[in-house]
Amino acid sequence: MTMAIQLARVDSRLLHGQVATVWTKAIRPNRILVVSDTVAHDKLRKTLIMQAAPAEVKANVITVAKMVQIYRDVRFDQFKPLILTETLGEMAQLVAQGIDLSEIGVDVGNLAYTVHKTMLTPSVAADEADVTAAQQLAQAGVAVYAQTVPTDRQQDFLALAQKKGLMSA
User: Fold this and answer.
1) Would residue 16 show up in a list of annotated catalytic residues for this protein?
2) 69 to 39, 79, 106, 159, 169: CA distances (angstroms)
3) Percent of the chain having pLDDT more than 70?
4) Catalytic, out of 16, 80, 117, 164
5) CB 109 within 8 A of CB 17
6) What is the dihedral of CA 18, 114, 147, 57, to 10 degrees?
7) What pLDDT does 169 receive?
8) pLDDT tens per residue across span 70-83
C-alpha cells in the first residue's frame, strides 16, 4: 500500500477558506500537507496556515524533502492527504523525487498575478517557469489542469498557456 493522495493542488495562497471548506468537503482528506521549504521555515506563516485548517482535518507544514520521506514511509500509508504547494516548481520537484501523481494529476487552483505573468484564467497567472514545471509534470505522465473549485470544469493548463502565447506550438 502507499499513501492515497486525494488532491495535489498548487495555490499561491496555500491553505485558505476555499481550500479549507469547499475542497475538504469535496475530497474528504484525513490530513492537509502544505509542502513548502519557504513556509516550513517561517514561523508566522506556518502558524497562520495551521489555524486556517478545518477542525476535522489536521494540517502540517513540511519541506519538500520531508514530504518525499514520509511518502516512502509505510507508517504514513494511512494518510489520505490533500497536498498543497505554492508553486508548480515544488510540485514538479515532488514528482521528480518519486511521488506518484499520475492517477490524480495536479490542480492549479490559484497562482497570483505578478509582473511578467500572464492571466490564463481569472485565478491563474503563469510565466515561463510555471510552464516549464507543468511540462516536466506532463513528461512524467502527470496531467496539469486549472480548476478553482470542485464544481468548475478542469481546463488543461498547458493548452491554456499555449493559447495565451506562453509556449510555442
Assistant:
1) yes
2) 18, 13, 20, 33, 38
3) 99
4) 16
5) no
6) -30
7) 58
8) 999 999 999 999 99
Strand order in the sheet with 81-85: 58-62, 31-35, 81-85, 7-11, 106-110, 144-146, 155-156
| Greater pLDDT, 1 or 58 | 58
- Give me 107's grid cell: 490542480
Average pLDDT, the chain: 95
∠ CA(154), CA(128), CA(146), 5° rounding?
Answer: 10
Q: How many CA atoms lie within 13 A of 35 on its CB side?
A: 29
With beta carbons less than 8 A apart as the criterion, state whether 4 and 12 touch. Answer: no
CA pair distance 151, 149, nearest whole angstrom = 6
Beta bridge partners of residue 69, listed in sequence order? none
E strands present in 40-115: 58-62, 81-85, 106-110
Q: How many residues does the chain have?
A: 169
Which residues, in sequence order, are bridge partners of residue 62? 35
Place of cell 476535522: 56
Neighbouring-strand partners of residue 118: 126
- Do 136 and 92 touch, CB atoms closer than 8 A? yes
Q: For residue 14, what pLDDT is reported? A: 94
Cell of 137: 509534470
β-bridge mates for residue 3, sequence order: none
